[in-house]
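Everyone, describe these structure tokens:
***
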Amino acid sequence: MDTRVLADYASQVIEAVLTKIHQDKCFPLLLSNGVTPLHSIVSETECAYMADGGAAWDVGVFDMGVDGQDANMTQAQLSKVVSQGRWLRQVSWCVTVVVVSDDPAFLAAFAEWSLKGRLLMWSTRLLVATRLPREDLGALLASHWTFSMMNTIFINIMQSVFLPYRYDLYAHLPYTPTGAQVVQVASWTADRGFLHPKSLSLFPDKFNKFVMQTFLVFEKVTDQVETRQSFVSSISHVITPIRLKRWDYTYPLNQNTLGFAMAKPVLKPRWLSFYYPLGNQVWAGIFTSGLVFCLILVMITRTRPWRAKHGQLSSGSVVLEVVGTFLGQGLLDRLSSSRSNYILVGSWLIFGVVVNAAYRGSLITSLNIPRLPPRPETVEELIEAVERVTYESYGSHYKQTFLQSNSEILQEFGRLLHLGVSTVDGLTDSFVMKRAHCNNRLYLKLIIAQNFSKADGSSSVYVGRERILPAPNAWPVPHDAPYKHLFDKYILAIREAGLHVQWEKETLAEVAQASRTTQHQLRTQEKKNQEGDESDKGGSSRRRVSLAITHLQGPLSLLLLGIIVAGLAFMLEKFIVPPNAS
């Protein structure tokens, strides 16, 4: 059979396949290396397709003039063709790629560049027509992802001795009961058309059942996915632009995004603790009222009738008397010796009683229920409050994403981010240093429930309110993975049923309950030990709650300041001021 007749029948086979799998708004993309005797199949197929009404839709034809021997020329031409073909696929509803060549080097180069250039998806069918022997065809199918895993079939247009007009179609099935193998999915003859087993379709589904390997190391998982040695990573990742350059993702599992956690702020000793029970305006009013009252009394004590009756009274004695009455101390009769003074001093005493009662009540409340310092809840507050934010060793993608962000706040957050610290260690460091730890919000809650929960259900660590990176979590898969639609189907069913939300709630509840039980057992044992020690000493087993320096630093500081000032005054009187002659 001459080449012309062979090409004519081969074009009929390709036309028959395209007709059988034809979909609305779907057009073929024909590709040939242009130097093989079979390159005329492309033009024959194009003419036949258009003659049968295919001209209603476009037909893409790429006829390359390379033979695969010049590797550089082949790479350059394929790079351009694959780039244009991908653009056609993206702007079209459906594309079927047809490659015609009997050159193994060209087919291998096409398989490599179609993978790099992301020409094919699972919905994109690939039909390869070649004259390679079945042995070479099997090796080619098994050694390239494009031919073995993607939606690909081969037409063997070798001339047969017994049936010169019969052509067999083959596909590589990576997962069968007997392992990976090349199977015949159909055959075609000019008289009878297609003949294929009922158990197999023309483009069989290769991923109804397939085996996945498990890797425990985070970096190893992603590297295996990127090189297509691992089909999927069972560790969910936050979707970031930098990661999308390396791999694709399944349908999102949840919306638990990146967050931060740190130790809750504790009450620190403050020397102004006696000042906080009253507001600034109240203190100003008390000081002004006391000053005015002292001036009035000083003016009264300077009058002649008063001095004639009571004698000389210094201004210091008047101030001391006023402060003493305000604090509820004794009252000298000399300040209330007249009826006008009765009214004046009485109003001052009533004012002192009211203010003292209010101050004592507010002071007791602030000592028993102190107001904790504000804690960071947003990223902007966090970068002002901490010196470092830690993350696990696999967080380099986040750091790059933050540093390349257009937000100045996220850029500063990226500069504060340090890698290589585990979550437990990072949260533990936040108790003694100005640090926070960053990770998945759900994972942070799980670690806190496991390691930082108390017996009463409270925790000394909190998760910030703001979500740092509002991106969903998903499983990484290789780019244009042909089995991605299967994962998407089952993940979508789980999410629609709300199962993932229920699983998260149950997991957190179980972990928190186990942690509380452990803490309760430890406290019970510690209490028994304390009761045993106190019974040996003959003491009471009742727990005593005492005020600490945190509560009383203000009054103690005021007392110490008074002692120091009084000492300085004593030194001035003793050594500097001359003694009274009398």
Notes: Residues 258-265+374-471+497-512 form a domain with the D-Maltodextrin-Binding Protein; domain 2 fold (CATH 3.40.190.10).
